[in-house]
Specification:
alpha/beta, globular, about 325 residues
Length: about 325
């Protein structure tokens, strides 16, 4: 598999990563099968993938344990990324707070290392920026983890340009992880420009629009009753219907290219630059193989112009998170 450099500090990852969140929570959580999820991770590694993405809050905590079991005996083949900063209440999983306090950073890292069963984390992200803690304090504590050998490289998630610059001044930031896809093109403004000016790699999460861009979701009833996406404004009411029209354009171009809509959507993200690495998530072997097929889809300049016309920036209807969560995006 093609390898890409994330940032300028020496981190190299597979061009396509694997997001592991949905293996434990959020997307049809009743359809959880750890054995199949582990088999999917193994298939990814066997196909040349290296870049695995998890976080302590997924589960909560159980996704790191799952990934840890999957990579046991294969650690040398994995670039392992995890995150801290979204604190889940274990008695009420819907209650969440944000913390970047230095003492919490250290405790969270040690806990992740235990759950993952590893002695170091390759890429450690702050999952969301804590508005009550100066970013300099948070990144300072993260830098201590690098000096202690517990972490190799540092990342941020959903941070805005000013925050990125302040963080990078404390310790080099290797990667920014932010939602990016044909229906979330917000980073194409100042965020991507800031990353490129500072030599920071870009990791695109939800590059398939939380599954919507696959064309497999055609009505709200296609989602399980407890699927997190039912809470997303883009999956509700008129927004849902408007977004189906966007997917119809993607499907039409994909048919001409003799690929699936998912492969077209991923190929488009991959074509946005060698510093961009999408991390589509799946817990199914067939979907993984389909996603990896995107690496063989070549898009010409004319293809990219047509896709840009079909799904321009701002085309998706509705916020990408419920309004209360949007205040922690691009901060």
């Amino acid at each position: 598999m093609e390898q890409r450099h994330l940032g300028t500090q020496g981190l190299v990852v597979s061009a396509l990563g694997l997001g592991c969140m949905g293996m434990s929570e959020f997307y049809d959580p009743q359809d959880r099968d750890d054995a199949t999820s582990i088999a999917t991770i193994h298939r990814f590694l066997d196909r040349g993938g290296t870049f695995l993405d998890t976080a302590d809050m997924y589960g909560p905590f159980t996704n790191e344990e799952l990934v840890g079991r999957a990579i046991a005996g294969r650690r040398d083949r994995v670039v392992l990324a995890t995150k801290f900063g979204i604190v889940r209440d274990e008695r009420n999983r819907m209650v969440r707070t944000i913390s970047g306090a230095p003492d919490y950073v250290r405790r969270a890292c040690d806990a992740s290392l235990r759950r993952l069963g590893v002695d170091h984390i390759d890429l450690y992200y702050q999952h969301r920026v804590d508005p009550t803690t100066p970013i300099e304090d948070t990144v300072g504590a993260m830098a201590d983890l690098v000096r202690a050998g517990k972490v190799r490289f540092l990342g941020l998630s959903e941070a805005g340009p000013a925050t990125i610059r302040r963080a990078h001044a404390v310790h080099p930031i290797t990667a920014l992880q932010t939602e990016y896809s044909l229906w979330t093109r917000d980073p194409e403004g100042d965020v991507l420009a800031t990353c490129r000016a500072l030599g920071i790699g870009f990791v695109a999460y939800s590059p398939l629009g939380r599954g919507f861009l696959t064309g497999q979701i055609t009505r709200p009833e296609d989602l399980a009753a407890d699927d997190y996406r039912r809470l997303s404004p883009r999956f509700q009411g008129e927004n849902f219907e408007k977004n189906l029209a966007l997917v119809a354009h993607v499907r039409a171009i994909a048919a001409e290219k003799r690929c699936t809509p998912a492969q077209l959507a991923l190929a488009w993200v991959l074509a946005q630059g060698g510093d961009v690495v999408p991390i589509p998530g799946t817990k199914r072997l067939a979907r993984l193989d389909e996603n990896l097929g995107a690496l063989d889809v070549a898009l010409s300049p004319d293809d990219l112009r047509r896709i840009d016309h079909a799904a321009p920036r701002g085309a998706a209807a509705g916020l990408r998170y419920p309004e209360a969560m949007m205040r922690f995006v691009n901060t």
